[in-house]
Write a structure and sequence with these properties.
about 450 residues; alpha/beta; about 35% helix; elongated
Length: about 450
């Protein structure tokens, strides 16, 4: 027995052309296999799989039936008085009423050489005068069949109907509840018998009740050109001295392990809303805090900081909020009051991003999209109370994130932050399947 090792790669168009040429020249399959360095069984399977049976258009009568000699079938025609065998019967006014037209057991008689190597008639010297069914191999047709098979084998759904129904019942309600695929997979990955990419494909093909419109983002982000700074003089204002982004980077190099909290405000409809949300995000765990404030001004922002430092204690506050990174909004342009409490004791350090560079606190900017899932942009924030903000915070912080390896910000914050903050603000984890990030959460 030969120990020669053959490569396991698929046949190429060139190799198929060599197979066709070898068959036309009457070569044995083993000889063809040696030429293209494949096993003879591979050649035999290739020929039998891709051969075709051409119709013989020039014949005046159909091909003979394989069962003609032993056939005893009668009464197939409409003539009730006919008692002849159907294979010998003739109808008046026309040629023979062929068995191929009326007999359900008709079987084309094939040449015995088709049932054994080389399985085709390509190199047969009797090809032109043969009255039996022909079989031919074409390299071009064989390669086309191969390419079609590559595509068709990957079409359709590789799941049983029961599995599809199970997946639909599990995933569709959660997607319609505003949950992300990352959150669903983090808590139900052990129940899902396919990859996340496959689930996106099923949704795109309409296999599930949930549709693309039920998902948060189904289009790519468009890359917009950054506008040139319009407030050039802002970078030279007094409140930024010693608190620029470059100063922030220097401070982080000196204290790389220090916790950073990004801060910003979220506004509702400009013409119909005075209340805004003051938001903070802990970089180390992605926990986001939301505080409704009456107006977008320095006094309301300071009130929040005073409340937190008085309730938590100055020591705990310093531990939680050692560094604040924010933008250049007018509500933050009194940093000395934010950094110090009412008694003048320093409680934090404030730094400002460069003008028109909100990406420097990109984690918080990106996290604002969770608020917009529940409260669409342009909608007034006036109707929402502190209880609504706490509910919104809890649902946002209970969603699992890919960036946190399937964990959610709340769980991570319990390990990294002082838990006095959680007790003070009423932070708690929402059960995974109850997380809702749709407008129905705060229906007003």
């Amino acid at each position: 027995m030969s120990n020669k090792k053959y490569n396991q790669k698929h046949l190429t168009m060139t190799q198929r052309i060599w197979i066709e040429k070898g068959l036309n020249d009457g070569e044995a399959l083993a000889s063809i296999a040696r030429r293209i360095e494949k096993h003879p069984t591979t050649i035999a399977k290739e020929v039998k799989r891709n051969r075709y049976f051409p119709p013989q258009k020039d014949r005046k009568s159909p091909l003979p039936c394989e069962r003609r000699k032993e056939c005893q079938i009668r009464f197939l025609c409409d003539n009730k008085d006919c008692v002849n065998l159907c294979k010998t019967c003739y109808s008046p006014g026309r040629d023979a009423q062929y068995c191929s037209e009326i007999c359900p057991d008709y079987l084309v008689k094939q040449c015995s050489s088709i049932s054994k190597a080389p399985y085709v008639c390509n190199g047969c010297p009797k090809f032109k005068r043969c009255n039996l069914q022909h079989a031919l191999y074409s390299a071009q047709d064989a390669d086309a069949n191969y390419q079609n098979l590559l595509v068709s084998s990957r079409d359709g759904i590789n799941q049983s109907p029961a599995d599809v129904a199970m997946l639909d019942g599990l995933i569709s309600p959660l997607l319609k509840n505003g949950q992300s695929m990352a959150h669903i997979y983090a808590h139900h990955g052990h129940e899902i018998p396919c990859s996340r990419r496959t689930l996106y494909t099923y949704i795109d093909k309409g296999i599930f009740e949930a549709r693309n419109i039920d998902m948060r983002r189904r289009v790519r982000y468009k890359c917009k050109e950054r506008k040139s700074p319009t407030r050039v003089s802002l970078s030279a204002r007094e409140f930024r001295i010693g608190r620029t982004y470059e100063d922030f980077q220097k401070s982080m190099k000196q204290n790389p392990t220090i916790s950073v909290v990004e801060m910003d405000t979220v506004v509702g409809g400009i013409s119909n809303s005075t209340q805004v949300f003051l938001t903070m995000l802990f970089r180390n765990c992605s926990l986001m805090l939301i505080f409704p404030i009456r107006e977008k001004n320095q006094y309301c922002v300071t009130e929040v900081f005073d409340y937190l430092s008085n309730s938590l204690g100055i020591t705990t506050f310093k531990e939680l909020f050692p560094v604040i990174l924010t933008d250049n909004g007018t509500e933050f342009q009194f940093p000395a009051r934010i950094e110090c409490d009412e008694m003048g004791e320093i409680r934090t350090k404030v730094f400002f991003c460069n003008p028109n560079c909100s990406w420097q606190k990109g984690m918080l900017e990106k996290n604002h999209e969770y608020i917009r899932y529940v409260i669409p942009k342009g909608q007034s924030l006036d109707p929402y109370s502190w209880e609504d903000a706490v509910l919104l915070m809890n649902h946002i912080n209970s969603e699992a994130r890919d960036s946190l390896n399937g964990c959610n910000p709340f769980k991570l914050s319990l390990m990294l932050l002082n838990n006095k903050l959680h007790k003070l603000l009423g932070l708690k984890e929402i059960p995974p399947d109850e997380v809702c990030l749709r407008p129905t959460l705060l229906k007003k």
